């Protein structure tokens, strides 16, 4: 199974480290040809405006939208969630606009307000050590969106079909379970693997 990591900016090497612990072949995605044959795609945390600009420069925005419409599983972490979102609070432009949520950028504060917290996640038996760094918050969800986790009654993880969006950085922990959950999602969508 081939899992891509959008490798334009952000926590690319950290996701690569996590995927190397699982039974998958990681692929660094830098251009459209790198999308060929993927069974899933991770859009990492970093700086969402920079990632989106580089996606446009590398002509990846439309090909990734097309792959999502064709059913390619995707997981966006932190800035990746913002890239996936259909609506961004107090911002008129969106990026991929494929995940039926409204997000608020930097909702948990500035860099100095970063924190780690154990959270209960639907699909994981034990609490997960979520790392929040200038994290976005899911303010609103569509009817077809499932909440996977909250912090203080605020939504920080969602799933819509084959799409997963996280406010936090699972790749900055030593806990591989969220990546395993994503790989299992990819396997269920790609049943012939």
UniProtKB/TrEMBL annotation:
Taxonomic placement: Bacteria, Bacillati, Bacillota, Bacilli, Bacillales
Protein name as annotated: Pyridoxal 5'-phosphate synthase subunit PdxT
Family designation: Belongs to the glutaminase PdxT/SNO family.
GO MF annotation: an example: pyridoxal 5'-phosphate synthase (glutamine hydrolysing) activity
SUPFAM superfamilies membership: Class I glutamine amidotransferase-like
Function: Catalyzes the hydrolysis of glutamine to glutamate and ammonia as part of the biosynthesis of pyridoxal 5'-phosphate. The resulting ammonia molecule is channeled to the active site of PdxS.
EC number: 4.3.3.6, 3.5.1.2
Subunit structure: In the presence of PdxS, forms a dodecamer of heterodimers. Only shows activity in the heterodimer.
Gene Ontology CC annotations of this record: cytosol; glutaminase complex
Record carries keyword tRNA-binding: no
Keyword Transferase: no
């Amino acid at each position: 199974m081939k899992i891509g990591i959008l490798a334009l900016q952000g926590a690319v090497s950290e996701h690569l480290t996590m995927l190397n612990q699982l039974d998958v072949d990681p692929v660094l995605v830098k251009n459209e040809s790198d999308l060929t044959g993927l069974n899933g795609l991770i859009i990492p945390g970093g700086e969402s405006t920079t990632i989106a600009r580089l996606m446009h420069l590398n002509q990846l925005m439309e090909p990734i939208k097309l792959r999502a419409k064709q059913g390619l599983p995707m997981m966006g972490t932190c800035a990746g969630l913002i890239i996936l979102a259909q609506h961004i609070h107090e911002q008129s432009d969106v990026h991929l606009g494929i995940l039926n949520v409204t997000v608020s950028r930097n909702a948990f504060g500035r860099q100095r307000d970063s924190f780690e917290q154990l959270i209960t996640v639907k699909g994981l038996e034990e609490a997960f050590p979520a790392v929040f760094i200038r994290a976005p918050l899911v303010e609103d969800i569509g009817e077809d969106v499932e909440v996977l986790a909250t912090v203080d009654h605020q939504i920080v993880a969602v799933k819509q079909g084959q799409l997963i969006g996280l406010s936090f950085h699972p790749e900055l922990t030593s806990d591989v379970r969220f990546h395993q959950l994503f790989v299992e999602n990819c396997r269920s969508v790609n049943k012939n693997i």
